[in-house]
Amino acid sequence: MGAVSIPDMWNTTTPSYDASSCSIDDFRNKVYSTAYSMFTVFGLVGNSFALVVLIKTYRQRTAFHIYMLNLAISDLLFICTLPLRVVYYVSKGNWYFGGFLCRISSYVFYVNLYCSIFILTAMSITRFLAIVFPVKNLKFVSIRRAKWACVGIWLFVTLTSSPFLMSGSYVDSKTNATKCFEPPPSEGKKKMVLILNYIAFIIGFILPFIVILVCYTMIIKTLLKNSMTKQQNSRKKAIRMIIIVMAVFFLSFMPYHIQRAIHLHTVSKNKDCNETLWEQKKVVITLALAASNCCFDPMLYFFSGENFRRRLSTLRKQSVSSMAQDNKRKKSGSSHDKSEIFPALEKQDSSES
């Protein structure tokens, strides 16, 4: 495998020098296998926990609840494909899972990436309306509108990301290994990839980022004007959300989109080996950062979610109540069965009474 082993279909050109002497394969395999393993563990735990709480407390749903539920589902779908990537990079770039799963793994990455961006944008708009237009927002912010917004986001992202389903696995003629996320170099694909990059960069990143910046600027101005009001809870949630969402954009989304655009415009230029290696390593690092967004979202649920901690408290109380009812059922049973099966519990009950 050569130095141009950049994941998915964004790199489709080959430098003129001997690629075998200028390869980032070892660096790439170590970074991706380590990063994706960590994201699998932390993302699975955090998003699964959040999803359970959100489903259990669905009766208390709000517009924010709908957005967070869809965000958790998007993250978990992506996390399910990460073990396949880990095996691929641990195996030093050999794909064992067939062409279909290769296409799906690449496709799901971009679906999750842009679903996350658009859902975070929708959540920011909702918070903006709730704070800047607290009276008028009741007409615009509703559970029904949130559901339709999520349906629109899913349809738009899944359809516009469909070109990534075109790139499947293939057998490398040099190493005889089955490759995935690395389509064979083709000049015919270069123009299509550049067009896709422009669309994704402008519609999938720049426009949502501008909308979020405008929303948060207006939110901050409103909070500063109304600093003496009693809406401390709403203010704290807004500030926490601004910090977390901006951190996700600056740490996860922005480096990847900027570096991807730079790489696509400079990859065909003649460079020395060290310069090319550095460019390729930056693409690897920024793509790993983009994948890390699935670990940031649980922080958003807990710290700035719409009464997420109250939902957790409610769920805990329900669990305690259910355990109390189970104990009552056990106490109403046969004393003979209790003395044989639960002697320690019976002793504890008698001592407490």
UniProtKB/TrEMBL annotation:
<feature type="transmembrane region" description="Helical">
    <location>
        <begin position="35"/>
        <end position="55"/>
    </location>
</feature>
<feature type="transmembrane region" description="Helical">
    <location>
        <begin position="239"/>
        <end position="258"/>
    </location>
</feature>
<feature type="compositionally biased region" description="Basic and acidic residues">
    <location>
        <begin position="334"/>
        <end position="353"/>
    </location>
</feature>
<feature type="transmembrane region" description="Helical">
    <location>
        <begin position="108"/>
        <end position="134"/>
    </location>
</feature>
<keyword id="KW-0297">G-protein coupled receptor</keyword>
<feature type="transmembrane region" description="Helical">
    <location>
        <begin position="146"/>
        <end position="166"/>
    </location>
</feature>
<feature type="domain" description="G-protein coupled receptors family 1 profile">
    <location>
        <begin position="46"/>
        <end position="301"/>
    </location>
</feature>
<keyword id="KW-0812">Transmembrane</keyword>
<keyword id="KW-1133">Transmembrane helix</keyword>
<keyword id="KW-0675">Receptor</keyword>
<protein>
    <recommendedName>
        <fullName>Cysteinyl leukotriene receptor 1</fullName>
    </recommendedName>
</protein>
<keyword id="KW-1003">Cell membrane</keyword>
<dbReference type="InterPro" id="IPR013310">
    <property type="entry name" value="CLT1_recept"/>
</dbReference>
<dbReference type="InterPro" id="IPR017452">
    <property type="entry name" value="GPCR_Rhodpsn_7TM"/>
</dbReference>
<dbReference type="InterPro" id="IPR000276">
    <property type="entry name" value="GPCR_Rhodpsn"/>
</dbReference>
<keyword id="KW-1015">Disulfide bond</keyword>
<feature type="transmembrane region" description="Helical">
    <location>
        <begin position="67"/>
        <end position="88"/>
    </location>
</feature>
<keyword id="KW-0325">Glycoprotein</keyword>
<keyword id="KW-0807">Transducer</keyword>
<keyword id="KW-0472">Membrane</keyword>
<feature type="region of interest" description="Disordered">
    <location>
        <begin position="319"/>
        <end position="353"/>
    </location>
</feature>
<dbReference type="InterPro" id="IPR004071">
    <property type="entry name" value="Cyst_leuk_rcpt"/>
</dbReference>
<dbReference type="Pfam" id="PF00001">
    <property type="entry name" value="7tm_1"/>
</dbReference>
<feature type="transmembrane region" description="Helical">
    <location>
        <begin position="283"/>
        <end position="303"/>
    </location>
</feature>
<feature type="transmembrane region" description="Helical">
    <location>
        <begin position="195"/>
        <end position="219"/>
    </location>
</feature>
